[in-house]
Write a structure and sequence with these properties.
By secondary structure, the protein is an alpha/beta fold. It has 17 helices and 27 strands. Among the domains are: 150 residues, Alpha-Beta Barrel (TIM Barrel), CATH 3.20.20; 203 residues, Rossmann fold, CATH 3.40.50; 54 residues, Immunoglobulin-like (Sandwich). Strands 12, 13, 14, 15, 16, 17, 18, 19, 20, 21 and 22 form an 11-stranded mixed beta sheet that branches. Strands 7-6-5-2-1-11-10-9-8 form a 9-stranded parallel beta sheet. The radius of gyration is 26 Å and the shape is globular.
Length: 681
C-alpha cells in the first residue's frame, strides 16, 4: 500500500485542471477550498491526451507542470493517470486502424471513450510513448504517490483483422489443435465443425464454447494491453505503485485475473441511494462490491470514485439525504478502503457529465450542503488515519466467478429468465452482512480456500476439475462448503457433466442431481425445515442421496418428500447443498445457525436491527444505520468510546437516520463472542 510520508487515509477527487485553464481565479479558489475540505490527494490527467500531445510528437506539459507544482505547494499528493481511455482525434485520423470495428465489419468513427482497438500496434505504441514521457517527467516528483492507468477498462469488443488474428492465436495457444477445439466446443452439434482456424468468427451465440472463449479473450487482451501500457511505468518508476479503477463487476472483464497485475486495487462506487423507501438493499450491494474489492488481493483497497451528490447517468439519481454522504463514505472505510475519493472536484460546464454533482458545483461556493458534508468527511478521516493499511479478519467467504457469470448468461436453461447470478450471490452474502460476520468475495481459481472456515458456492454452474479438487481438499481438511442448485452442471468448456451433478463432487456432497425442475412465477412451492415452511422458487433439484448424506429439509408439495436441503460429513468437514432458490429470511436464519454450529464468529454479540450494519476493522467497530429513522442498538455490557465525539457508550448505541458510530472498546475484556444477531421474521 501507500506508506511512509503518504501513510493515512486518502481524501480526494478527480481534478480536471485542464478544463479551467482560462479561469485562473477558480483555480486559485480551488486551492483554498481543498484545504477547507481536508482534501489531501487529487487524481489528474485522466482524459487529457489531446492537450498533452496536440499532434504526433508535439507535447505540451506546461499546464500539467503548473498543476503539479500548485497542488504540491498546497499540501496535496497526486495520483497521475495515463490518458489512454480517450484518444485524441489526430490519432484516429492519422491511423484509422486504432478505431474499433463492429461485428458486421464497420469501423467506428472517432468519439466517445474506450472505442480504441486494444490489439492495434499503432495504438499501443502511441500509449507507450506518452506514458514514457509522463514517467520520465513526473516519476521523481515528490507529490506523486500512485499511477492511475487509463480509466474504467471495460470488455468492449472489436472485430478488426488484428483482433480476429489475435483471437485465433489465443485459441491455438489454448487448444493447440482444431480437433481439441472442436471437441471442447462440441461442434458436432448443428454441423459446426471447423476445419481451419480462419473459419472461426466470434459472433455465433449457438456455439457456447466459442462465445465463452471470445469473452475470455477480450478480458485477456485487455490485461495484455494494460501490461503493455504499464511497461514504461514499471521500468522508469519502479517505486511508484500502479492501480486502475475497476468498475462494478459486470463489464465483461475477469477482475479476479486482472487484479493479479495491480499493486493496489481501486474501484468506482456509485450506489443508487434513496430510489426506494428502504436503503438496506442498496447498502448490502455496496458492501458486497467493497468486500469483493478487498478480496481481490486480500488487502485494503482505494475507493477511487464516488459521487458527493447525485450522478446523471443512473436514470433516477437522488441527492443524498442528510447523513448519507458521511455514512456511505465510512461504509467503504469499514469494509477495507484506505480512501474516500470523488468524481469530481469541480463540476464540468459541458460534456456528457456536466450535471453529475461534484465537490464544487456550478454554484461555485464552499458553503453548499455538498461541500459541508465533504468537509465533515475529511475531518472524520483524519481522526481515523491510524486505520490505513489495517486488515480485516475473515472466516467466511462467498465465491463469485466472472467467467461462471458469462457461461450462465449464455446457457439456455429450461428457465432462462431471472437466472440472476450476481443478485443471488449478493443474497447469500447478505446473510453474513446482516449478522455482522465479515465475509470475503473470492475467486474459485485464484483464492486460497484454506484461509476460511466456511465458503458458499452459489450457482457455480461452470465447475472446472481444478476447482472441484480445491473444494474437495477444503472439505476434507475440515472446511464447511455450501453449494446451491445449478452447481457443477458443466466443465470449463461449457460441456455438461454426465452421471449427475455437481460434477466431480457427488461424493463430497453425498448426492447426485437427477434433474432440475423449473418453478414458474405463478406456482407456489415450499420446503419444510425445522418445523417452518419456506418458499422455493425458480429452480428445484431432484436429487439422489449417496453415502450418508442427511436430509435437513424436504419439499412439501410432493408426496415423495424429496430432499430440499442436505448435509454430508466428508472426512473432517461438512458439505451442505441447497436444492432450490429461496427467500432471504431463510438464508439469514440458515447461515446464522451454520456459523454458530461451525464456530464462525460475528464481530459483536449483539442483536443487529434490520438496516443496521456492524463491521470491525483495526480493532474499531463501525455501527452504520441505513434506515431513514433513528435506531437504538443494544450493545451489551462492553464500554466503548465513540471516536466521532469522544463520548462514552454503554448499553445502547443511538444512531440518527443515516447515522454512524465508530466505537473503540474500552472495557476490560474487549472479548467478542460468536453469537447470532438477527432473528428471522
Amino acid at each position: 500500500m501507500i506508506t511512509g510520508q503518504h501513510a493515512g487515509l486518502l481524501h480526494g477527487a478527480d481534478y480536471n485542471y485542464e478544463q479551467w485553464l482560462n479561469s485562473k481565479d477558480l483555480l486559485d479558489n480551488d486551492l483554498l477550498y481543498m484545504r477547507e475540505a481536508g482534501i489531501n490527494v487529487l487524481a489528474v490527467g485522466i482524459f487529457s491526451w489531446s492537450l498533452l500531445e496536440s499532434d504526433e510528437g508535439v507535447y505540451n506539459f506546461g499546464w500539467l507542470d503548473e498543476c503539479f507544482e500548485r497542488l504540491y505547494q498546497n499540501g496535496q499528493k497526486i495520483i497521475l493517470a495515463t490518458p489512454s481511455g480517450s484518444k485524441p482525434a489526430w490519432l484516429s485520423e492519422k491511423y484509422p486502424e486504432v478505431c474499433q470495428v463492429t461485428a458486421n465489419g464497420i469501423r467506428q468513427t472517432h468519439g466517445g471513450r474506450h472505442n480504441h482497438c486494444r490489439s492495434s500496434v499503432k495504438y499501443r505504441e502511441a500509449c507507450v510513448r506518452i506514458n514514457t514521457r509522463l514517467a520520465e517527467r513526473y516519476g521523481t516528483h515528490p507529490a506523486l504517490i500512485l499511477w492511475h492507468v487509463s480509466n474504467e477498462y471495460n470488455g468492449m469488443h472489436c472485430y478488426c483483422p488484428q483482433c480476429l488474428a489475435a483471437f485465433r492465436s489465443w485459441l491455438k495457444k489454448r487448444y493447440e489443435t482444431l480437433d481439441a477445439l472442436n471437441a471442447a466446443w462440441y461442434t458436432a452439434f448443428w454441423s459446426h465443425h471447423f476445419t481451419a482456424w480462419e473459419q472461426i468468427y466470434p459472433a455465433d451465440p449457438s456455439i457456447h464454447g466459442l462465445m465463452l472463449d471470445w469473452q475470455r479473450f477480450i478480458s485477456d487482451q485487455t490485461i495484455d494491453f494494460f501490461l503493455a501500457e504499464t511497461e514504461p511505468l514499471r521500468r522508469i518508476t519502479p517505486g511508484i505503485p500502479i492501480t486502475t479503477n475497476f468498475q462494478m463487476p459486470d463489464v465483461g472483464l475477469d477482475f479476479h485475473k486482472f487484479a493479479r497485475h495491480l499493486d493496489i486495487i481501486s474501484w468506482d462506487n456509485y450506489p443508487e441511494w434513496h430510489n426506494s423507501p428502504d436503503d438496506g438493499p442498496v447498502a448490502l450491494k455496496a458492501a458486497f462490491f467493497h468486500d469483493l474489492s478487498r478480496s481481490y488481493l486480500g488487502k485494503p483497497f482505494l475507493m477511487m470514485e464516488s459521487s458527493p451528490g447525485a450522478t446523471n447517468w443512473q436514470g433516477v439519481s437522488k441527492k443524498k439525504k442528510k447523513g448519507m454522504h458521511v455514512l456511505s463514505s465510512i461504509q467503504a472505510v469499514a469494509h477495507g478502503s484506505d480512501s474516500v475519493q470523488y468524481f469530481q472536484w469541480r463540476q464540468s460546464r459541458g460534456g456528457a457529465e456536466k450535471f453529475h454533482d461534484a465537490v464544487i458545483t456550478h454554484f461555485g461556493a464552499d458553503d453548499t450542503r455538498i461541500f459541508r458534508e465533504v468537509a465533515e468527511t475529511g475531518s472524520l478521516l483524519k481522526k481515523l488515519s491510524a486505520l490505513a493499511g489495517t486488515a480485516t479478519e475473515v472466516q467466511a467467504a462467498v465465491v463469485y466467478d466472472f467467467q461462471n457469470g458469462w457461461a450462465l448468461d449464455n446457457a439456455q436453461l429450461p428457465r432462462s429468465i431471472e437466472k440472476n447470478y450476481q443478485k443471488e450471490c449478493i443474497a447469500q452474502y447478505g446473510a453474513f452482512w446482516k449478522a455482522g460476520i465479515s465475509c470475503d468475495v473470492i475467486s474459485p481459481e485464484y483464492s486460497d480456500f484454506e484461509r476460511y472456515r466456511l465458503i458458499v458456492f452459489p450457482m457455480l454452474y461452470m465447475l472446472s476439475e481444478k476447482t472441484a479438487e480445491k473444494i474437495r481438499s477444503f472439505v476434507r481438511q475440515g472446511g464447511v462448503a455450501v453449494a446451491t442448485y445449478l452447481t457443477g452442471m458443466v466443465n470449463e468448456s461449457d460441456l455438461c457433466y454426465l452421471g449427475g451433478t455437481p460434477g466431480n463432487l457427488t461424493d463430497v456432497f453425498g448426492l447426485a442431481v437427477e434433474e432440475t425442475e423449473t418453478i414458474a412465477g405463478y406456482e407456489t412451492q415450499e420446503f419444510l425445515m425445522n418445523g417452518h415452511n419456506w418458499k422455493a422458487s425458480h429452480y428445484a433439484d431432484r436429487i439422489r442421496l449417496r453415502g450418508g448424506a442427511q436430509v435437513l429439509a424436504v419439499f412439501t408439495a410432493d408426496t415423495e418428500e424429496l430432499p430440499a436441503v442436505t448435509a454430508n460429513e466428508y472426512e473432517k468437514g461438512t458439505a451442505y447443498y441447497l436444492c432450490t432458490r429461496t427467500e432471504q429470511t431463510f438464508m439469514d436464519r440458515f447461515y446464522r445457525e451454520l456459523c454458530e454450529k461451525h464456530g464462525v464468529q460475528a464481530c459483536v454479540p449483539w442483536e443487529i436491527p434490520a438496516g443496521v450494519s456492524v463491521r470491525e476493522r483495526g480493532g474499531v467497530l463501525f455501527v452504520m444505520n441505513f434506515n431513514c429513522r433513528e435506531i437504538k442498538v443494544l450493545s451489551g455490557e462492553n464500554v466503548y468510546t465513540n471516536l466521532l465525539n469522544g463520548e462514552t457508550v454503554s448499553g445502547t448505541v443511538s444512531l440518527q437516520p443515516y447515522g454512524v458510530a465508530i466505537l473503540a472498546d474500552k472495557s476490560d475484556s474487549g472479548e467478542k463472542k460468536s453469537k447470532a444477531q438477527n432473528n428471522p421474521e
